[in-house]
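Sequence only, no structure available. Ideas?
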Amino acid sequence: MSIVDEKSIFIAMKQDGPFAVRDQISFEHPFSRQNRLWARTFHHNRQMASKYRAVRDQLFDLLQIESFDEIPDLIQNPLLRAQRSERAYRLLGNLFGISGELSEIRGKIHEYMNTADAVIGQIRNKVLAAYSSNIEISNEIETSKNPVDLLLMIFDDRYHKKIRFEAKRKLVLMGLAGSIDQRERETDIENKFSAFLSFLNQFVWSPQLKIGELEIAYLASRHDSTDFSCTEVDVIDAETARHLHEFAENEKLTLVKRRLFHSNGQEIPVYVTVRKKDSAAKVLKLLRKNEKNPAAAVDDELGLMAVLDNVNHIKRLVRHLTRAAVKAGSMMILEDISDTLAGNNYDATSVGSSNKTQMLKFFARMGGMRVEFIIHTNQSYLNYRYQRGTSHDEYEVRRLFDSGVTEFLFPYEIYRLDMTQVREKQLQRFRKIIEQQG
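Reply:
I predicted one. Tokens follow.
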């Protein structure tokens, strides 16, 4: 289900929907040809009409008006607009469960606006970096954080179509950011993330190393010329890597900063990244899932990825983790286990995923937390980084384009980007970068 098809729940954003941003807007001609065509289009679609009324009523409540006819006066009256803005902040504060003075509520809403900008920034900085100038946020939108001002821009014909669309987009993304923040406060995610890091430092990693101390190593690998999958990999130290100056066409050198853990009297190295998904990434996931409820769509807020030398070390890490949890006073229950390290196909459910992905994946429930674990061997990790059709960079491109998110955020009639062509060009760009020597 795509976010831009007829089942999209984001009706306010659709350029083929009742709230599409047109070249011009007018309140003076309610029976214009454009308005008559609009009414005819949605008259027989009861579901669309119900969604339209719901969004319209929310808009009226936020502006504290009874009809669209009141909007021009509100645009022209700064004092009235300021009064409505103060009331709107309080309404949104209560919607998202924000307590405190008006200044605190306003600060939180502005944080959500910053997250909305960060969503576009994440796409500009990576997946659509080659088109950064095409999709740059208008200055008037980037500097505006007042929800009433943004809402009135949508209905102000003095503003260009692109600015009016971006005002609407920023409000929609702001709303998702607010829902995510409310969910994080309800689940106490910040404290859980801190507790998870403390668990790892106190019970999992070797006490012989200081907290945060890492050993530098490199994965020297050779890759198949057909699909660039890893055919051979050696672990070398930093000194050896320093003396490597030339690489064959299909060779790579990948840095890994490794920790240690004890297992049966042996110290085993493991490269680990621990992450708490940031708000902008969560907003993008909600869009990809065509979902507004963070509780239903974002189940991987806390995550750990580990890379070990072989499958035996992986088994020992998993057992070490469950024993460490017991030492910490909690059982560790492994849920939704998927193991494709032996070569069997991965049951890909996410848009853009490859069924050739090799990894051990599960959720670990412990100490009131649910953490996603993704565990690789050195070889499967290098495939995750570099293999054609499987690499994470390619996956990031596919999932944003194939879910309809790029078209949703940057519709063709405004940004003039053919997303089918852009998708193929970006996949080619990432492959060229990935397969560069060294």
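The first strand starts at residue 215 and ends at 223.
Hope that gets you unstuck.
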